[in-house]
Amino acid sequence: MAQDQENFRDSIGTIKEDGKRAWVYPKKPSGKLYEYRKYVSYVLLTFLIASPFIKINGNQFLMFNVLERRFNIFSFPFYPQDFHLFVISMIIGVVFIALFTVAFGRIFCGWMCPQTIFLEMVFRRIEYWIDGDRGAQMRLDRQAWDSEKIRKRVLKWIIFFIISFIIANVFLAYLIGSDRLIQYVTDGPSQHLSTMLSLLIFTGVFYFIFAWFREQVCIIACPYGRMQGVLLDNQSIIVAYDHVRGEAENGRKKWRKNEDREALGNGDCIDCNQCVNVCPTGIDIRNGTQLECVNCTACIDECDSIMEKVDLPKGLIRYASEDEITKKEKFKFTPRLKGYTAVLVILTGVLVGMMFLRNDLEANILRLPGQLYEHKEGNIISNVFTYKLLNKTTKPVENVHFELISPKGEIKLVRNDNFDVQPEALEEGTLFIEINASALSGDKNNLKIGVYSNDKLIETTTARFLAPRSYK
Questions:
Q1: What average pLDDT is seen over the chain?
Q2: What φ, ψ does residue 292 adopt, rounded to 5°?
Q3: What is this structure's pTM?
Q4: Which of 312, 316, 296 is nearest to 27 (CA)?
């Protein structure tokens, strides 16, 4: 390591010694990896903005309606009755993140996290366009509030607010559904004041995050940075500084033309500090793996550019593991990775199987609370039940009726015998089940009931039927 004392780990890099915020002015990144990140960001931004407005088979592609407990994941609707599927999906997500982090570190944060994408590829690029690069931004902050500073600040704040408002609308579309959002917009804000208030609150939150809080979200608020300290090992591929090559025997040294650095025992790091200047969280990657590093690769591009200028090999900062740097060992599929992969495959298989077994119509038939049974003429025993049918599709289930599969008996609905269940609707009602006592085996009998649509069996469910103990 470049530092004998690791006191830099005692506090985060964006806090000064007096406890005040150390504002980060990152240099505008450039290079091959940054171009790749831009392409990935454009695709993900398109996906994030378009997802709530895309429909497949009438279902919104992604929706997380917490208030009404309705969720659409890749156009598959989930309801409270499917909570077990949702839990398994979340567990799979956690295991996948753990597997990905053990193998490739915090690459998700730098390449795919919405916070990084919006901050680095939207808000910072607007800031570079208005305020200029690192040096210009620092001078502008120190500058008195003259007409130039006021003009640039007001322009930037207005654009930031507009983008935050757009993001808030998209976020709301995920929560309440795009159809309802479009209807609210068509009706006008005066017709939905509570929704408009919520929208402005979301706008304020996003504006605060991207205009002021910024990298503090990754460093302070997000728990993922803490997770990497537990999940990473010496074989994890991360954005790493090759300290063996960079420091050599006598450490780093400023560049001097025609100087034989190898003979002097100096490493390839010329101590230009450009990797620090370009870092969006303000750290020095040469200090090793740190909480603040989001693996954005900006330091890789910048270091490669400097190495090219001084005619030294690229890759002083690169994707590598600690074992690759110190022991020259390549990436291995370790037993730890195999364990995570096995768990992930098993859980995914369970989820896929349960998804195939999942019915489009959920049926629940329960005995009416507080009611026992009724003894009718002809040795008939009658129980009263309530039923709930949930249609999870965007098409009506037509001509629905019930039939008793076992034992033999008759089902009588309080309403019409046949009815329709509307799309994404819950149908409730009351029914009577009548069975001859000779077909019963005791005071508590298990029934198997079929739910039919146009004479086609679409769902089966069970219920408990009570009878006098003497008919055992």
A1: 89
A2: -75, -20
A3: 0.82
A4: 296
